[in-house]
From TrEMBL:
<dbReference type="InterPro" id="IPR001764">
    <property type="entry name" value="Glyco_hydro_3_N"/>
</dbReference>
<protein>
    <submittedName>
        <fullName>Glyco_hydro_3</fullName>
    </submittedName>
</protein>
<keyword id="KW-0378">Hydrolase</keyword>
<feature type="domain" description="Glycoside hydrolase family 3 N-terminal">
    <location>
        <begin position="2"/>
        <end position="135"/>
    </location>
</feature>
<dbReference type="Pfam" id="PF00933">
    <property type="entry name" value="Glyco_hydro_3"/>
</dbReference>
<dbReference type="GO" id="GO:0008422">
    <property type="term" value="F:beta-glucosidase activity"/>
</dbReference>
<dbReference type="InterPro" id="IPR017853">
    <property type="entry name" value="GH"/>
</dbReference>
<dbReference type="GO" id="GO:0009251">
    <property type="term" value="P:glucan catabolic process"/>
</dbReference>
<dbReference type="InterPro" id="IPR036962">
    <property type="entry name" value="Glyco_hydro_3_N_sf"/>
</dbReference>
<dbReference type="InterPro" id="IPR051915">
    <property type="entry name" value="Cellulose_Degrad_GH3"/>
</dbReference>
Length: 135
């Protein structure tokens, strides 16, 4: 692994830089990620398109990283999902402060499981949720 490839694994990019409409811009992806890329962040907000389109886009992008980069390291899709999956059709829950006010651990656990299921269903493997905060 070259120094450039190691550094690329530490970097991320926004989906808006590689997706135009509902299509992956492969040429742009080749320029941005010629040495690979660690993550694509805020992936669920790709124009708020439906889940099926997001799955197709994520599959096409992963195929590029696996087949078109020298090392074939898949990219991590990340999203901020503090109150649920923020893409079209996602479930949005009350904020963490509201949830904490219920003192219901079972409810908090169910919420986290639903968020996990929804983001996994579109290929997102890293989310910033839920938050443990001592406010």
């Amino acid at each position: 692994m070259t120094l450039e490839e190691k550094l690329a694994q530490l970097c991320g990019n926004l989906p808006f830089n590689i997706i135009r409409g509902n299509k992956v811009n492969i040429q742009e992806l080749k320029e941005i990620a010629k040495d690979g890329l660690g993550r694509i962040t805020q992936f669920s907000l790709v124009g708020l398109i439906n889940k099926t389109d997001i799955v197709h886009l994520s599959n096409e992008i992963q195929k590029f990283f696996i087949e078109e980069t020298r090392l074939g390291i898949p990219v991590v899709f990340q999203s901020e999902s503090l109150v649920g999956y923020p893409g079209k059709g996602g479930t949005i829950f009350p904020s963490m402060m509201n949830l904490a006010a219920t003192w219901n651990e079972t409810l908090a656990n169910k919420m986290a499981l639903i968020i996990g299921q929804e983001v996994k269903s579109v290929g997102i493997s890293s989310v910033m949720s839920p938050v443990l905060d001592v406010s």
